[in-house]
Amino acid sequence: MKKDSLRCGAFCVLKLMLLALVSPQLQALPQQSAGTAGQVQQTQHTAQRQSSTPVEVSPPAQDLPAKPSSDPSCALVAHLNESRADTDAEGLQLPRWYDLHARLLHLLTDEAGCQLTVVGSPWPRSLTLLQQGKIDLMLTMSYTKERAAYADFIGVHYMEESVLVLHKNYLHLVHQLSDINLLPGSIGVLRDAYYGEAFEQLRHEKSYQPYLLYANSLTQKLNMLKKGRVLGMIEDKTQYLEWSQLYPELQAQYRLSLSLHKAPVYIVASKAGVSPELRLRLHQAWQRVYGKEKHRAILAEFGWVLE
C-alpha cells in the first residue's frame, strides 16, 4: 500500500509537469488560428475591393482595319462609260483612261477582298442601274445632293476640270459659257453629266436648248466632233489632252476655250445594291490605298497625278 502511494505520487507529479509544459502551446494555438483567419479575411476583402474597382481599358487604335482576306461571297459589278465594242464601231481608239479607271476599281476591290467585274455602259444608263441597285460601283462621279440620295461617295480618285473646247474659228465669239448662243451651231455634252452650277442653270433655259447636243457616251460625243456635227464640246481637261494626242486632225482644229468647273470626282457605291457593312469596308479599303505607293504607281503609268 505504501509502495502504491509512492508510485502514484511520483506518476502524478510527472503528469503535472508534462501538463505544465504542454498547456502554453495549447493556449497559443487558437491565437495563431485567429491570426491566420484574420489574414485570410483581409486577403478576401482586398480581393473584393480590387475586383470592384473599374478597370481602365485602353482606347481602340485609330489605325484602319487590316486588309481582309478574299471573300468569295463579295462579288461586285462596276460600270465604265465606254466599251471596246462601241469605240471599234465608231472607228475610234479606246481611251487610255478606260484601263486606268478599271485598274483603280480593281485596286479598291482587291484591298477590300472582293471580286470585280467591269463592263462598259452609257453614262445615263449606268446612273439608272446604280440607283436601282442593279450595279454596284461607278467612278468619275461629281457630288450632288440628288446623287447622294442613292450613291455612297466612297472616296475621291481625281480632280476633274471641265473645259469648253471650240473650233478655232469661233474662239473669239465666246468669253463666258452663256455666249454659246452666239455660235452658228451647237456643242456636244454628255447626258446627265455635271459640269458645275453655271451649266446646270443654262441647260434648263429653253433658249439654250438648240445649242446643246447630248451624247450618251464620251465616244459618241467625240464622234460628233469628228463628223462636224458640233462646233465644240464640254470635256474633262485631261481627256481633251488625251484625245488631242490620239487624233492630230482634231488637235489642229480645236482649242481650249474656257475652264468651267473644277472639283473632285468620286468612286461611288450603290446604296440600294451594296450593304452598309460592305460600303464601310470599301471606304476603309480606299483610305488604306489612296495616295499610297500602288495608287501613285498606277497613276504614273498613265501619266496622271492626284492633284
SSE series: HEHHEHEHEEHEHEHHEHH
In round numbers, the mean pLDDT is 81
Q: Tell me, what's the shape? A: globular
- Given as residue ranges, the uncertain stretches (5+ residues, pLDDT < 50) are 1-62
Strand order of the largest sheet: 3-8-4-7-5-6
Estimated structural class: alpha/beta
What is the makeup of the main sheet? Answer: 6 strands, mixed
Q: How many angstroms separate the termini?
A: 127 Å
**CATH domain class name:** Alpha Beta
Query: According to CATH, what is the topology?
Result: D-Maltodextrin-Binding Protein, domain 2
Structure commentary:
This protein has 307 residues and is an alpha/beta fold. It has a single domain (75-301), classed as D-Maltodextrin-Binding Protein, domain 2 (3-Layer(aba) Sandwich). The protein has helices at residues 2-52, 84-89, 96-112, 123-132, 145-148, 197-203, 218-226, 237-246, 248-253, 276-289, 293-301; strands at 75-80, 115-120, 137-142, 151-167, 187-190, 212-215, 232-236, 254-270. The strands form two sheets. A six-stranded mixed beta sheet has the order 3-8-4-7-5-6. Strand 5 (187-190), helix 6 and strand 6 (212-215) form a beta-alpha-beta unit. It is globular, with a radius of gyration of 41 Å. Mean pLDDT is 81; it is low at 1-62.
